[in-house]
Amino acid sequence: MAGFSLIEAMIAVAIIGILTAIAYPSYVDYVVQGHRQKAMADLMALATAMEAHKAQQYTYEGAASSGGDTGAPAIFNSWSPADQPAANKQYDLTIHAINDNGRNFELRATPTTTAVVKSDGKLMFNSLGQKAWDSNNDSSFASSEYCWDC
């Protein structure tokens, strides 16, 4: 007799289903971690652009769109991955705050609601060199979240 019986085919499909159920979440975690790493790099590049802006203007003020202090940056892409078209964005990059009369800044990367990273939590970097990742996605940075790879 040649071929497979129905039971053999069902066992093969069940094995494939089990392997997929195990592998897919790991794959998604890997993709999310990759996008987060890219957003971290893009935040650092935006921070470099902020420093260049300060070197020319003697303040961090006015680096956002339309010469504002907060919001989408005018001096760098407002999305991450910055080397991809905006249609592929995973995070929105913003200048969240300018403090101390233009002497300090806080930048954020917020996951977009339509991206695979939508529940990954915000990233923050400021001019003091502090880094934070809202790893539990509760919209605040706890003291234990002041690191990027917690």
TrEMBL record:
InterPro entries: Bac_GSPG_pilin, N_methyl_site, PilE-like, Pilin-like. The chain crosses the membrane at residues 6-28. Pfam families: ComP_DUS, N_methyl. This is Prepilin-type N-terminal cleavage/methylation domain-containing protein. Keywords: Membrane, Methylation, Transmembrane, Transmembrane helix.
